[in-house]
Amino acid sequence: MTSASGPTPSGPTRSGPTREPPGSYDAVVLAGGRATRLGGVPKPTVVLDGDTLLDRALAATRDAEHTVVVGPDLPLPPGRDVLVAREDPPFGGPVAGLDAGLRALERARRHEHPAGRRQADGAAPAWVLVLAVDVPRATEAVPLLRAAVTHTAHAAQAAVDPGTSATDGAYLVRDGRAQWLVGLYRHEALRGALDALAGTDGLSGLPVRRLVGLLRCVEVPDAEAVSADVDTWDDVRRLTVGLHDVVAEPAATATASEHAPPQERA
């Protein structure tokens, strides 16, 4: 939910307050769905306006310290040091995928900084960017999420009772629907929620709603539909046209400004 003064946290609090804005973060890209509405074509390989959905998702994580792609074996773009993981069991759903992604990040940190040689600057980032692979405009979502968490952190610093404005993360909301898989979450809180949900049957098939329901999160309005996702070939065509509209509108505005009379340019 949001207010006139900015986003406000909602949901139960499971962990202590976080007051530091997310300067650094890791990223988990969830790419393991069956894509039944695309005729079984793996979503990461779908090309939209010249780039695969996986390429677009990885472009959105370019500022992450570590990025892990959770899903089947896929060709990764050259020049990126990307971790790979697989949910257990395969096609076990996004909650199982998040668990696999966090574990892969944790293994990578242990490998880089073994016990006895761990340095202060070797600590994992406090935040994890979570992206479904089928969101072609995810790059535009990241600044919105970081700004929302930063705003809430600053509010916590200024509050008389700092804990009242603490948050475990933020996610976009488009047309009244929560987009939990376009979110930025505190690593410790997300790990704790996953552990709390894990039972004898594991995390396979659990709804994301149950996971996020254990966190105190900020809902960020997605007025520009940057979280629109690809489920069908009609979505591919519609979003391809939409991407051209997004690029063309600023260009058209600039052209109109260049040809306007001097008094209208001021």
Short note summarizing the structure:
The chain has 266 residues and is α/β, with parallel strands linked by helices. The chain has helices at residues 53-60, 94-112, 138-158, 187-197, 208-212, 233-259, 262-265, and strands at 2-3, 6-7, 9-10, 25-30, 47-48, 51-52, 67-70, 83-85, 127-132, 169-174, 177-186, 217-221.
Blueprint (SSEs and pairs):
Elements: E1 2-3, E2 6-7, E3 9-10, E4 25-30, E5 47-48, E6 51-52, H1 53-60, E7 67-70, E8 83-85, H2 94-112, E9 127-132, H3 138-158, E10 169-174, E11 177-186, H4 187-197, H5 208-212, E12 217-221, H6 233-259, H7 262-265
Parallel strand pairs: 4-7, 4-9, 7-8, 10-12
Antiparallel strand pairs: 1-2, 3-12, 5-6, 9-11, 10-11
Helix pairs in contact: 1-3
Biggest sheet layout: 8 strands, mixed
Indicate the percent of residues in helices.
25-40%
Describe the strand arrangement of the main beta sheet, using strand numbers: 3-12-10-11-9-4-7-8
Quote the average pLDDT.
Answer: 81
Count of discrete alpha- or pi-helical segments spanning 4 or more residues? 7
Report strand %. 15-25%
Radius of gyration: 20 Å
C-alpha end-to-end distance? 38 Å
Shape call: globular
Question: Which ranges are low-confidence, i.e. pLDDT below 50, for 5 or more consecutive residues?
Answer: 1-10, 12-20, 116-120, 247-266
Oligomer: single chain
